[in-house]
Protein: Transcriptional regulator, HxlR family
Organism: Chryseobacterium profundimaris
Amino acid sequence: MDNTVVFEESITAEKCSGHLSSVEDAIYVIGGKWKLKIIIVLQEKGNIRFNELQRNIPGISARVLSNELKDLELNGFVKRVVHAEQMPVVVEYISTDYSRTLKPVIMALSNWGRNHKNNIRQDVF
């Protein structure tokens, strides 16, 4: 298996540094154990309440989910909608149009992950 990366244009040290910086920025915003999982569930389920969101992400605590949602909201990936006219007050979370720009990235990661798992299985077993 050839692991060589072929670029369409030559990469200078400056361009490489720029790419590394951009990837670092992206990982800072969506990295970690939970953020992409939250984004994926929100994109698949639409409007969703906190407890339902927590049930859809096995292993996440309420405290961690709350903190991750705050981070995602600050970065424009999640919108918190409060329905104060209802009793009790209902709070829902929805993915933003901006978060949906991650869909091609998520699909590419999913495909890569599936291929990687298959390659590991072939090499190991």
Observations:
- The two ends are 17 Å apart (CA to CA).
- Residues 32-124 form a domain with the Arc Repressor Mutant, subunit A fold (CATH 1.10.10.10).
- Residues 83 and 89 are 6 Å apart (CA to CA).
